[in-house]
Amino acid sequence: LAKTTQPISMDSYEGQEVNITCSHNNIATNDYITWYQQFPSQGPRFIIQGYKTKVTNEVASLFIPADRKSSTLSLPRVSLSDTAVYYCLVGGRGNTDKLIFGTGTRLQVFP
Amino acid sequence: DVKVTQSSRYLVKRTGEKVFLECVQDMDHENMFWYRQDPGLGLRLIYFSYDVKMKEKGDIPEGYSVSREKKERFSLILESASTNQTSMYLCASSFPVGGPEAFFGQGTRLTVV
Fold this sequence. Notes:
The complex is a heterodimer of chains A (111) and B (113).
Chain A: E1 9-13, E2 18-23, E3 32-38, E4 45-50, E5 53-56, E6 61-64, E7 70-75, E8 84-91, E9 105-110
Parallel strand pairs in A: 1-9
Antiparallel strand pairs in A: 2-7, 3-4, 3-8, 5-6, 6-7, 8-9
Chain B: E1 4-6, E2 10-13, E3 19-25, E4 31-38, E5 42-51, E6 54-57, E7 64-70, E8 73-78, E9 87-94, E10 103-104, E11 108-112
């Protein structure tokens, strides 16, 4: 599985757009990019997944450049409740694929 | 609604005890996972199962074993609990096809004294 690298932490203010970038230089052809969100004392929760270009849902957008060696999770107009740890995962859709989490990015949103 | 249920939210055990952590999912998922989470270390995969009676070691399997006798249930076993196994344990499940979208339980905070 491709290894991922993310910033350890980020700070933002309410109402701002937050972009968290993940590097995955050795991503494989059949790998997808998936982001999870985790609040304290809870399990991670799926946010968004993509393969290439751009994906958008009601929570976030995911931007993936043509070479797919990185991806950016974009959170529009964050609020205090978006304070959490965000994990980027890279992997395929095979039935023996393990889900390997890194240390994630701790986002702190201030009033 | 999707549900992954872990048997205990908090657990306190003594050193040397055999500890069972149970996880049940109601989504008919083939894949199930056990992780532990410690401050500053993120989630680390202990064991993974992709079918009944099938298992694979994760990154940190030492001191742990697992059991998957039924599709919906995945048990993590600490054969002889030690203080360095004090941690938050998280169970997850997912379909094998359709992307690595996993659903997590609420976690079990285990303290070994």
